[in-house]
């Protein structure tokens, strides 16, 4: 279920980017907020890789999932369609759970969210 929701959020993001016909100044407040959240998500996903693919995946997915949450909350605020709002609520719930898992995994493995593995040799 969570994987399906992730795929749906990615497809939605791509569709919104592809539709980008209107200029920002012509967008509704909700669409403008989605555009800003999408931009912020992509910016926060840009990070230096450590060489540890597992850690890099987890670190990269946290801002990706947070972006999905931010966009879903915007739809919950501005959206009108009940099915879309229900999907947005499910996305928030699933992504929050997955973020908590990823943060716990990083901590358990001594990897800070922002970068290199921690040196526990002096603890």
Write a concise keyword list for the protein shown above.
123 residues; globular; single chain; Ferritin; 4 helices; mainly alpha; disordered C terminus
Helices, strands, pairings?
Elements: H1 2-19, H2 29-44, H3 53-78, H4 82-108
In short:
This protein is an all-alpha fold and 123 residues long. Helices cover 71% and strands 0% of the residues.
Plain-language structure description:
There is one protein chain. By secondary structure, the protein is an all-alpha fold. The protein has a domain at 55-114: Ferritin, core subunit, four-helix bundle (Ferritin, Up-down Bundle), CATH 1.20.1260.10. The chain is built from 4 helices and no strands. The chain has helices at residues 2-19, 29-44, 53-78, 82-108. Helix 1 (2-19) packs across helix 4 and helix 2 runs antiparallel to helix 3 (53-78). The longest helix has 27 residues, at 82-108. The protein is globular, with a radius of gyration of 16 Å. The model is unreliable at 115-123 (pLDDT under 50).
């Amino acid at each position: 279920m969570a994987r399906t929701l992730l795929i749906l959020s990615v497809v939605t993001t791509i569709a919104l980017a592809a539709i980008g016909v209107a200029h920002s100044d012509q967008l509704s407040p909700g669409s403008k907020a989605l555009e800003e959240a999408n931009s912020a998500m992509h910016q926060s996903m840009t990070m230096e890789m450590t060489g540890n693919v597992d850690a890099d995946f987890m670190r990269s997915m946290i801002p990706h999932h947070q972006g999905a949450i931010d966009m879903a909350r915007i739809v919950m605020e501005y959206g009108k369609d009940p099915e879309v709002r229900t999907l947005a609520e499910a996305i928030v719930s699933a992504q929050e759970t997955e973020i908590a898992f990823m943060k716990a995994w990083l901590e358990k493995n001594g990897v800070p969210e922002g970068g290199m593995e921690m040196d526990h040799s002096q603890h």
